[in-house]
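Researcher: I'm preparing a figure for a lab meeting and need a structural model of a single chain. I don't have an experimental structure, so a prediction will have to do for now. The sequence is pasted below. Please return the structure as tokens so I can convert it later.
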Amino acid sequence: MHHPIRIIVGVLIASSVLNTFMISSSTHYLRNEDDSGDEITFTKDDFEDIVSNDNRGIHLPPPSSGNIRKPDTVKIVAFTDHSFAPIGQWWYQKMEDLSYTTQTLVLFEPMAVAHFDKLRQKGHHFQTDVQLIDQPVAKRRFKVHRLWYVRILYCLNQLKSGQSLVLTDSDNVFLRYVPLDTFEQSGYDAIFSFEQRYPEHIFKQQGFVLCGGMTYLKATNATIQIMERLLYNCFNGDGREGRGSKSCDDQVVWNQMLFKEMRWDMNNTRSQKIDGNASTNDLLQHGFEGHSAVVPNFHAMIWDRNFSHRGRFEECPFDDKAWVSMPNPLKDERLEKIVRGRHGRFAQQYGLDELSMVLIWEKFCAINGTDVNQRLDEAVSFYMENFKELISPFVNDTRGNL
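Model: Understood. Here is the structure written out token by token.
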């Protein structure tokens, strides 16, 4: 379950401009938009109590009880290729079930485009954009690092066109509906999520690190400048394929850049510990705000950990305040072998590893009790007994060992 050299960046982006056209009613190839330099403005909706009195966090409206919801203008996006199509389809359906309407899958290789086009022809509806990596690569770790480059490029393109985003991973588990425009009206250009400890050298120096796969980005000139700097650092960093390879570990690049450039206000940070949980007692739990020392007017905050939760597989959200959870992979080799043994070689090739883990995690967190191992065994047993029904809605037109 795992960013001021504007002239140079402009040249890099211009070299990868693609024509914009529709491959269906809801799939678009994307190109870079010219930056007009004009300040982007938005009409404020009447959300109440957006920013708390201490400027530490966002007050969110309670879960809906039948009230009419205003349509979101913020797009929430997750990236997928063909092999991750099942988990992408699961994520899309999850967002739809929670009453979101702007969720979009960004397809970054041609096989994924063909896959979702085929699904659409059969009557399945998905909102998709296309932002292809430059060329196919044999090694998956190189492919992932190129994905992170085009993910930054995609976000920059969208922001320049005036579109604000929530960027997420397709294996992040959303738990309830929160209006995305709440973040749009919060007064922040970006809102980040806490990571655990990676990259460790940054964690050791500042006491926290941020997650590259769960972020809100508002379409402002300040955010655009931040993303241009991030793209340049990704292009020019020491990635697995060397400098200038359009590939990087965006989590490392994000944290290195923000560590050097952000001035965080941590004076009001409350208790850092969770009693009885030795694995997290050195992790900050409550978010705070900060500003860039390099980009004028860039103002950001960090969500509380119990709102955007990143933790071990065995850690369920702390309370009903949680919006999204990002569980780490299951570290129980015995249980992993049971699941992988059932799906065989198709588990990784067709994304069943990721899909099975989120389904098992959801069941695990729904089981009451204090015996973690017993709950894990019960959740895995439930999955093994019901896996055909559980995964079949998300593996249509994907060959797998069902």
